[in-house]
């Protein structure tokens, strides 16, 4: 069965290229542009991994992550922060309980190896 | 404590007449909330434990507050002991300091915002170029590949420059997180040689290692110190056209010293003081941010170490840094 990834990211260009990269590696990728779309999706489906941007319109990535980690149904899904904010990221990862982070612009190998680390 | 004598300037500063001043004491010219602190500080001055009080709040007759540096010294007049106080109004200086703090904060916020806004589109650009270059979207001709490689190289260069600006910002704000562990500095040197050797070979330069094999493991952030060393080697590679680059490690008095020596252009004596200043580039054509050495300095300082340069113009440069064997880091 194909592993499902939910990409929560508001930059459409980045969504497109990231989807392409992951699909070529045989992952199924669905995207949400904001928290509303993300949680609507999550009501119906449980992905195997979430890639989460930090600076999103409305609810920020930090809050989304905290909400995910408080929800018994969703808290076991690994979350990788997908962000362009470089400062204090390792600290933030600990604080909000994400499992890892990828800094934009990213190396394709880094994206794939981190995704693989969690869902093979 | 009543005042015994005063000059016209202090009367003008506080807004009282000389007669009024003679009826006042220390507790009348400082805000009530600050009095315990002020009196304690004066006590320490009388004992000779401190000589100078910086930017103390002082209350004028109309209740307004200004800040003054106050120094006091005991004097004896006609056999009686008094305390002589000198006030220097520092309101303007404090305003300037506050404005400077605000400016630094604004600069930091601006840099973070700009860097973030640049990194996001750069992410999409880099990934698009990579995917086409890898042939994910179809086969490329040699010319197409060559030009996309140029694009990719320059995207990577932009990304590096932005990372440097952000790194410096984080270091300057004291927010850099260091991962301190036992590490072998010789390993870091060997790794740096591995990565940089290709560039050295391309330029026809010899890369020499002169390592003290008996060095103990010491505590430092491997990635950050590796960044410093890469920076130093990179500078040497840029500024050396022939000859060699030598990295040596030695043990000194409770320190490990790493030196990067080149046979390059060298640095003019008058340029030495600007070497570690941020956004300074002695050689503009090398295309950097001018932050490499400023970042290196901050990283080494944060480890409780030192970094410095020795150079003879026309003959080459040696950059040295030392790291303490026993921990004496301050800011980490």
List the helices and strands and how they pair.
The complex is a heterodimer of chains A (120) and B (332).
Chain A: E1 4-8, H1 12-24, E2 28-32, H2 35-44, E3 49-53, H3 61-70, E4 79-83, H4 89-96, E5 100-103, H5 108-119
Parallel strand pairs in A: 1-2, 1-3, 3-4, 4-5
Chain B: H1 8-14, H2 18-22, H3 35-46, E1 53-59, E2 65-77, E3 80-89, H4 91-133, H5 142-172, E4 181-183, H6 185-202, E5 206-211, E6 218-220, H7 222-239, E7 244-251, E8 255-262, H8 292-302, E9 306-312, E10 316-324
Parallel strand pairs in B: 5-7
Antiparallel strand pairs in B: 1-2, 2-3, 4-6, 7-8, 8-10, 9-10
Helix pairs in contact in B: 4-5, 5-8, 6-7, 7-8
Q: Estimate the strand proportion of chain B.
A: 15-25%
Sequence of strands across the biggest β-sheet of chain A: 2-1-3-4-5
Q: Give the overall average pLDDT of chain B.
A: 87
Q: Are there runs of chain A of 5+ residues with pLDDT below 50, and where? A: none
**Major beta sheet, strand line-up of chain B:** 5-7-8-10-9
Total beta strand runs of chain A: 5
Beta fraction of chain A:
15-25%
Oligomer: heterodimer
Distinct helical segment count of chain A: 5
Radius of gyration of chain B: 29 Å
Largest interface (CB < 8 Å):
A-B, 22 and 28 residues
Task: Give the structural class of chain A.
Answer: alpha/beta
Distance between the termini of chain B: 46 Å
> Helical residue percent of chain A?
40-55%
Secondary structure tally: strands of chain B: 10
The largest sheet of chain A, given as strand count, sense and whether it forms a barrel, is:
5 strands, parallel
Query: Count of helices of chain B?
Result: 8
The stretches of 5 or more residues of chain B where confidence is low (pLDDT under 50) are: none
Shape of chain B: elongated
